[in-house]
From TrEMBL:
Pfam families per the UniProt record, alphabetical: DDE_Tnp_4 (PF13359)
Organism the protein comes from: Crassostrea virginica (Eastern oyster)
GO MF, any single term: metal ion binding
PANTHER family assigned to the protein according to its UniProt record, in alphabetical order: GH03217P-RELATED (PTHR22930:SF85), PTHR22930
Stated family: Belongs to the HARBI1 family.
One GO CC term, this protein: nucleus
Domain DDE Tnp4 positions: 3-118
Protein name: Protein ALP1-like
Keywords (A to Z) from UniProt: Hydrolase, Metal-binding, Nuclease, Nucleus
Listed cofactors: a divalent metal cation
Subcellular location: Nucleus
Coarse class of the protein's main subcellular location: nucleus
Residue intervals passing through the bilayer: none
The organism's place on the tree of life at top rank: Eukaryota
Lineage: Eukaryota, Metazoa, Spiralia, Lophotrochozoa, Mollusca
Amino acid sequence: MLIRDAYTGWPGCTHGARVLRNSSLFDKAENGQCIVQGNFIIADSAYPLRNWLMTPFRDNGRLNAQQRRFNQMLSSARKIFERVYGHLKGRFRRLREITVRKLTRIVSLIISGCILHNLCVLHHDDVEAFIDNDDDGHPNAYPNIYVDGIDGVLCRQQLMNTMPL
């Protein structure tokens, strides 16, 4: 899987939803400029639900079977992306622990790793020996700090209704 967008320069402790909200990807997606209708970016429940950013139903103990199945399918799809991060950090172990202090060099290091990762994928470089599994098995513990968009709610419902049982 290719990395299509990389937005760097924020401290690692910054909430991912805040980083996304401040990215050009967010602005373009909100204006319908970069994500084809019917395609989605998949995120966990800490992110705002949009018609282009699909998040799971919040489990408040009252999810029906169809909503639980939707969440399972979304989680499975997210694991593919988490595996890409494992491949990236497995191939380029320097990305596991960056000790450089100059921000511009850190950004260059990360972007270079993403570009080289894509070249490896395009040239069918075997990565299995380098896999780094960072997934701790726990969903993002951050609360959703943004309000879900009504378009996203309707879009998620429609997507769930089209899923095979």
